[in-house]
Design goal:
- The protein is rod-shaped, with a radius of gyration of 20 Å.
- With about 90 residues, it is mainly α.
- Helix 1 packs antiparallel against helix 2.
- It is built from three helices and no strands.
- It is about 70% helix and about 0% strand.
- The longest helix has about 35 residues.
- It has one domain.
- The mean pLDDT is about 90.
- The two termini are about 30 Å apart.
């Protein structure tokens, strides 16, 4: 396998795993936000004293970056992998 293809598919896999992991992290932090705070408007956990709202915000940023990376990799697939088309298809 070509190095370029290997790196391309590794980046695709990493961004898909990043999307899945951050979605799970957001869901997990939202459950913690519900059960570890006294008020719905509180963001500081009573157990770990961590600001859960900042954690959710940061995970949303990571999710957006992974999603944008995946879209860019899929959109520019031909330029990244440099497919060589036969002359009959060129205009």
């Amino acid at each position: 396998m070509d190095k370029r293809k290997l790196i391309y598919f590794l980046l695709i896999g990493i961004s898909i795993l990043g999307i899945l992991t951050t979605m799970y992290g957001i869901l997990n932090t939202m459950v913690s936000l519900k059960y570890e705070t006294e008020n719905i408007n509180d963001c500081i956990s009573n157990i770990s004293n961590e600001n859960l709202c900042h954690t959710i915000r940061n995970l949303k940023i990571v999710l957006s970056i992974c999603f944008i990376l995946l879209i860019v990799l899929i959109y520019f697939r031909r330029k990244i992998l440099k497919y060589n088309r036969p002359d009959i298809y060129k205009r």
